[in-house]
Amino acid sequence: MSYLDNVRVFVRVVELGTLSAAGRDQRVTPAVASNRIKELERHLGVRLFNRTTRKLSPTEHGRVFYEGAVKIIEAVNEAEAAIADLSRNPKGSLRITAPLGIGRRLIASGIPEFHDKYPDIEVRVRLSDHNVDILAEGVDVAFKLGVLEDSNLRMRGILNCERVLCASPEYLARRGTPVNADALIADKHDCLLLRYPGSKEYFWTLVTPEGARKFEVAGPYDSDDGDVLTQWALEGRGIINKPLFEVKSHLSEGRLVEILKDCPPASVQLAAIYPHKRFQDPKVRLMIEFMAERCQRLIGRLLGEEPEGEAEAEAEAVSG
User: Fold this and answer.
1) Could you tell me the domains of the chain?
2) What range(s) does the HTH lysR-type domain occupy (predicted)?
3) C-alpha distances in angstroms, 262 versus 178, 218, 259, 265?
4) Exposure winner among 106, 218, 220, 240, fewest CB in 10 A?
5) Each residue's pLDDT expressed in tens, for the chain with a length of 320 residues
6) What's the number of CA atoms in the CB half-sphere (13 Å) around residue 122?
């Protein structure tokens, strides 16, 4: 076994807390991960972890070794990146993450094309509407809609995305169309919310004539999957707050109707988020540049701001 591979597994066990999680991350079985930790402990002559039935926690020796091990991995990654940059032949793996909606429509569908251009880069994609801890989970690039909340990260803005409130004609016929933003609460409208542990969306920020205001809306049910909310809205179950590009086709074809146009939701930025040092890696730069151009092009097409050109099939695929 490679000593460096053992160190990589050790670092991920510390960060993820279990052999199985670290094994999945490094694409080895829990048994192999366990053997690598044991070999590392034999080599160092100390115990690196306190073992319980649920979780591994580093010993004092383990904590000290972790601080140095992280620097070793970062140094090796930076050296490999520098060589790849000089040779113009980027290699290695990239961990990227994105919310389910934009992940399915814009990011995941572009990975095969990215790999065709850079066949020596292995891409690991995780799609989730949950809040992903980029540093703890070793993510290289996160594509997300929102604001940067961690000063240990950097952001490359891609596109400012308009949001809309909308509901189905059936819902509006049954419950009435809100005459103003306050009616969302006063008339107890069913507002469909994206919620998960750590979620911020327990209110909607709307841009009213008096300025931006927060409205603590509510509804009979919520989900941690944004596409589920859209489906519920299409079925007449409530009002959704979504990026315009995600629901443009439904609005154009009358399946959904935009409401409260004079006090729309605050727009949100589509951005690439990454740890400070990662942008030095040419793989990260290439991925961000590739996806930024792709997202701008496809969102523009979905909004009808660009001609269909030769990519009609592609536009249909991302609007589904």
Assistant:
1) 1-85 (1.10.10.10), 89-158+267-305 (3.40.190.10), 163-266 (3.40.190.10)
2) 1-59
3) 12, 21, 9, 10
4) 220
5) 588 889 999 998 998 888 888 888 888 898 999 999 999 999 999 999 988 767 788 999 999 999 999 888 888 877 777 776 655 678 888 999 998 888 988 999 999 999 999 998 999 999 987 778 888 788 899 998 876 666 668 888 999 999 999 999 999 999 999 999 999 999 999 999 988 766 666 789 999 988 899 999 999 989 988 899 999 999 999 999 999 999 999 999 999 999 999 999 999 889 999 887 665 678 898 999 999 999 999 999 988 875 444 444 444 444 44
6) 4
Query: Which two tokens mark 95?
Result: 């961990």
Q: What CA–CA distance (Å, rounded) separates 248 from 134?
A: 31
Residue with tokens 């383990």: 62
Backbone angles phi, psi at 29, to 5 degrees: -75, 160
- Nearest Cα neighbor of 227 from 155, 129, 297, 306 is 129
Residue 59: which region, alpha, beta or left (left: phi > 0; alpha: psi -120 to 50)? Answer: beta
pTM for the complete prediction? 0.68
182 forms beta bridges with none
Q: C-alpha dihedral over 127, 29, 197, 247, to 10 degrees?
A: 10
